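Weekly puzzle thread! Below is a chain. First person to post its structure in token form gets bragging rights.
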Amino acid sequence: MTLTKLARIANVSVSTASKAFSMSSDISELTREEVFAAARANGCFKKFFNAKYPKYIAAVICPELNSRYYSDFCFSMQKHFGEVNFDVCISSYGFSDAAARDRIEYYEKYADVDVIVLLDSQTEHLPPHETPIINISSRNIENADLNIILDMESPMDEAVKYFINSNIYDIGFIGEKLTHNKLLLFKQAILNNKLSLNEETVYISGERFEKGGYDAAQHLLSSGRLPKALICAYDDMAFGAVKLFNEKGIHIPSDVKIISFDNISTSAYSVPSLSSVEFLGKKAAELTVSSVLDILNGGSSEKNHTLSAKLILRESSEIQ
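Winning reply:
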């Protein structure tokens, strides 16, 4: 199908058909819809439609969407980008560097997006790209257009110090296979604060989310080495641990105090409310959007930003 033949079918000039597909205001909407109807009837609408989408588009690539941590942040990104007339496309890469590169290649080569936001990738180098890429993670990517680095070391140290300042030195950690970096930071914080690391109070579950927390808490309890304070890799694991403790008559915070990471939207409303470290909150979304606007407007934004986290103390770690 040629544009000339389609124009003849729609009973318009070739120029009018061309203006219809470029969304020109020189023709009426009625005429445009007649041309579009003829194109769809002949299976060639996508072939000829060439107008640019009227909004900026940000592609957000995150590790997974079944995590409330990431889904909360994606929702926040949608909200803040929407306030500056952006639409947002969201995809996930399943913690696979190869899949992350595939998503980047898709948005770079085949989809017309204006910026790519890559979340928590462990890759060291991005593929060649012209579309600006914003890296938000705990590590720097040299050829990203902007790095927003999440400082995870300081809040882990702050959590350990909080317990030490309350005369609690028996501190444990629970995590799962994808939280190895937090385990390393926990061990370093213990050593930095001149405590002895007790491996019996550290458990890495083969499960994830609430099930992983439940499993880890059960292991610590059955081993007879439940610590006085427990740092959980993330909030969903903490919720699972709390459920197990409640079932076994272990009281929080009188028997064991808990601090977790991520501060997802339900943490303030759990029973007891969960003390947690906030990384990807409103501040991160606002910084991302303002940096994107600066880049797209040709500004000379700093290439690296470090974003400090915030320890939010609630009932689960109260000192009584």
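Puzzle host: Confirmed. Bonus trivia for everyone else. The chain has a mean pLDDT of 94.
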